[in-house]
Amino acid sequence: MVTTILILYISKLNKIIHFPDFDKGIPKKLFPLPLIYVGNHISGLSSTSKLSLPMFTVLRKFTIPLTLLLEVIILGKHYSMSVIASMFAIILGAFIAAGSDLAFNLGGYATVLLNDVFTAANGVYTKQKIDPRELGKYGVIFYNACFMIVPTILISFFTGDFQQATDFKQWTNFLFLIQFLLSCVLGFLLMYSTVLCSHYNSALTTAVVGAIKNVSIAYIGMLFGGDYVFSLLNFVGLNICMAGGLRYSFLTMRGQDAPKQLPDEEKAIPDAKS
Hints:
This protein has 14 helices and 2 strands, in the order H-H-H-H-H-E-H-H-H-H-H-H-H-H-E-H. The protein is mostly helical. The chain has a two-stranded antiparallel sheet with strand order 1-2. The radius of gyration is 20 Å and the shape is globular.
């Protein structure tokens, strides 16, 4: 968050980018995105620690149908049956894999599903808030980090994580500091690229792209993670999930995933353009 604030503020001062100066209307424009953001952060870290990497990857696929549902409810969009069918393939694969998971962890399952809800809401509300006439993509990222940096520090303090971090012995290790700062910069780039993808495409496409990148993570986790318990159904389920994601990618390249507005919104589009 500190890295995000510094990079964007310095860029604004040097007129590389532009976003609105702070005023009392900013919190209202951004709400409830900061709360969703910190919920997504905490539930994601918690679920990662409780599940094997392949199972975490599979259960994260539920973000995709949740994003589709929230886009329909909040943004008033609907998608073709081909896209919905690929969503069902992803869900089916997730159920098969999760149902045969030999390392079942109820707490981990519950936490990762909560993380799916936060992630889907974060994507949809980000798409809604990055209107160039309002905060824009840079304003959303900057003020989101500003509003949540203090609450996040307080949460980490009361959970003991802050003390554990300050007691870490490697803060004097130059090589570690370089890698740590690099991870902070890469975290900012990941956040920026995610918002950029939602800006030019849709929250659903962003969710699917994020899931597809996990194809390599899932299989690497099977080979090198050390905590994956193999079963035939679990392996089949993983592959069905991946196939559904690749099918969506194919539809995206053919332009069949473009979200369509509901009739009332279609009527409003010409007025907005004029």
